[in-house]
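Table S2 (text version). Query chain:
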Amino acid sequence: MTEIATSIVDTMREPVLVLEHDLAVFHANRAFYRCFQVSKEETIGRQLRDLGNGQWDIPELRRLIGEILTETDTVEDYRVEHEFEMIGRRVMLVNARQLVQSPDMKRIFLAISDVTERERIENELIASKEFSEKLIDSIREALLVLEPDLRVESANQSFYDMFHVSPKETQGRLIYDIGNGQWDIPELRTALEDVLPNDRRFDDFEVRHEFPGIGQRTMLLNGRALDHLPRILLAIRDETEKRRREAEQMVMVGELQHRVKNILANVQSLVTATLRRSKSLQQFREAFLERLGSLSRSQDLLLRQSSGRVDLHELVRSELAAHGWEEDGRLAIKGPKVALSRRQTQAFAMLVHELATNAVKYGAFAQSHGRLDITWSIIRGDGKESLSFEWRESGVSIAETPRASGFGSGLIRRSVGHMLGGTSSLDLSPHGAICRVEFALEA
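Corresponding structure-token output:
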């Protein structure tokens, strides 16, 4: 090699070897000694395979020199991977060229690029990109990656599923153009064009919008402008269902408060009415607990019905069963299917309870020959429906007719008049009792 050629080789940053035709090292530059931590004395004049105590006896390198260079004069970027004893694993790209100075003098020029670190970084970048893509796809929230001009670079599967759009309709488009302009939302423009450039982020930015394909949606947006990459992350959480459930819960809480208030008012009314007609604490206790039990049974019926309405036949049968009566030869219940509202159920259960209590003490339930017929019908008129109900006891013989004031008639009248908004009549005789009730049914 000439002095100029040697100087050029020595100034190269890449490791360089010049081999004789028998593969003995003719020359190596300083970059080679530095990169592979060998000295000039350990290198010059030695066979390539003997360098570094045999560390350079590399199969891929032997194949490059022994096979490839016999067929061609030049090889570029031939990848060689090897574990060196002193410096560890190295990935090298080798460029080889045959230098023919004369028919009898041939040398091989090897330029070696150590790409170990570069390849490690590339692999890490690939792995990082794969990790980011899989992480984004695994997020349940809809996520968009935007370029600085607000074009969509990518979106996760949750976005496509949530808003019923395809990648073709999304990627590469301005966010406002997605779905034929469905995303041209004034609040979104404010967040992306006014808030984000100044604050570099926004959190829980609420947007409500009517999408032609999926209807009204309430969304919370979180945006981030990345610091080291000109990209914007936009996370979208669909709060529609959650807000609907919250609204329903508020209605339910309000309804519960209303019901509790009504129940407490009913209990207070029971206490007052029972106390007024009780001659002793024991009599009050017995009557009040019975009436409280009736109220409890009506609440149980209401809780079992998700619609909040109770079948009249079931209500009557439940109240009579609590007094030990069932439909048999002495008891008949007949009437069309009628569903009472919550308010009507509570009032009507109390009415039936008072009538059944009287029947047990004085009437049909108190004597073996007594009979009870309960009938009702629906009266239609003026676009409304009313219930006509009759309680008729017969086959009894009562020596002394109970006084109406001690028969719970006050509760019956209040239940029908105040709570049901209807009319009632109660006729007591030695032969039993007849109670007729009429009130409008709630639609």
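Notes on Table S2: The first helix runs from residue 3 to 11. The CA atoms of residues 354 and 408 lie 6 Å apart.
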